[in-house]
Amino acid sequence: MFTNPLDRVSNLSSSVSSSGSEEPLQMQSFPLSKNAYRKCFKTLGSNRAAELLRYGKSRDGCLSLAQGEGTVSTPDFICQAVNTALSEGKTFYSFGAGLPELRQEIATYYSRIYGINLPTNRITVTSSGTNAVHYALLSILEEGDEVVAVTPIWKNLIGITELAGGSIQEYPMTQSETGWELDLDGLFETCTASTKALLIVTPNNPTGWTMSGADIERVTKFARERGIWIIADEVYGRCVHAASRAPSFLDYAHQDDRLYVVNSFSKSWAMTGWRLGWLVGPTDAEDKVRDLILYENMGPPTFSQYGGIEALRHGEAFLASQKSLWQSNLELVMSRMALMPRLQMVRPNSAFYAFFKVEGCENSYDLVKDMVDEVGLSLAPGAAFGKGFHDYLRMCFAVSPEILEQSLDRLQKYLEKA
Ligand SMILES: Cc1ncc(COP(=O)(O)O)c(C=O)c1O
């Protein structure tokens, strides 16, 4: 006879003793599985840079220039577009690959700023640049596939690759007297039969290095011949000091090349909290990425995308004002750092980071912690950006000149004392 399953549950938890009273049953205990969680958490979990960021933020009076964002909030005209969208009830599920108006606006933006014509079906709106990298990797990687990443590189990109099942092979740039250099022959030699993709951030976080058009063309040809994917993170593509934009892989690619280009609203229009970006892929990637979106989050927030449209349509004046802030801040950084002991830094030509070597530093994680404790300044440790950068620090200078001055004072005090 079938019993009510709920009765069976209650029967399991108690029994009637010979005296007639109910006694709890001894539950059988099972050993906790050692493999309850994925192996990758062993490496993902040990993100000391993230711990240090939290540490710096938790200390009263500590100035934090450790994260990749400035102190200017999103301009009003972008926020207004979202207020309007919300008041018009744009609060429903939308298209997974993004609002058609925004996809069209991104295509128009590429044509206006880059002189590149892209069909909208190659463009997917994503919930941030980070999310775009994730989709790109998830759509191509099988477990254990190798991704060759040019370093130094933003730590999260290494984490996302591991999460997507890939293994990272780092290929470092080198710092010379005049700037950061990437040896392309060495990079090509690092690629093996197991290499599925090249991961390149240009303009680069943290160095501010920008790949030249000629180098982009060589990498594109090499990857095409070898059947290797390129994932080009171009989120700083408009944050170039002496030009309107950096050379893009899209300038040199054919439309069916195995190329994903990642972009974001975060850096150019001060929209880090909006979690909005986009991905450009080959023509046959659209349905693959759309499937991933369906099972991930069904697309970026509907109302945020109206802010994205506005940023692309009317955001050039704001971007120009941001660039002039970054440039004058960079001058301040260069002139102040030239007088500080133990520092070696080459002038970045894009983005808003000072990435510098500290003579005698053996462990940048320890140094960052010590600097927080000693002078109340939190920077990002170089070791987080790849092997071989243990004696570097990164300072984000996209902040107000007052905060930057105070931070430089504290850095100088620390270096003179230590
Ligand atoms: C190279 C690079 N890619 C992507 C991102 C993240 O962009 P988003 O805020 O759109 O996720 C960052 C943020 O610092 C970055 O430095």
Distance between the termini: 80 Å
Enumerate the distinct ligands. pyridoxal-5'-phosphate
Mean model confidence by pLDDT: 92
Radius of gyration, whole Å:
25 Å
Compute the number of helices: 14
- The portion of residues forming beta strands comes to 15-25%
Number of domains: 2
Give an account of the 3D structure.
A hairpin with an 8-residue loop joins strand 13 and strand 14. This protein has two domains: 47-73 and 317-417, Aspartate Aminotransferase, domain 1, CATH 3.90.1150.10; 88-314, Aspartate Aminotransferase, domain 2 (3-Layer(aba) Sandwich). Helices cover 40% and strands 16% of the residues. The longest helix is centred in the last third of the chain and has 22 residues, at 316-337. A seven-stranded mixed sheet has the order 4-12-11-10-9-5-6, sandwiched between helices. It is built from 14 helices and 17 strands. The radius of gyration is 25 Å and the shape is globular. With 418 residues, the protein is an alpha/beta fold. Helix 6 packs parallel to helix 7 (155-163) and helix 6 crosses helix 10. Bound molecules: pyridoxal-5'-phosphate.
Entry keywords:
418 residues; Aspartate Aminotransferase, domain 2; alpha/beta; 14 helices; globular; binds pyridoxal-5'-phosphate; 16% strand; 7-stranded mixed sheet; Aspartate Aminotransferase, domain 1; 4-stranded antiparallel sheet
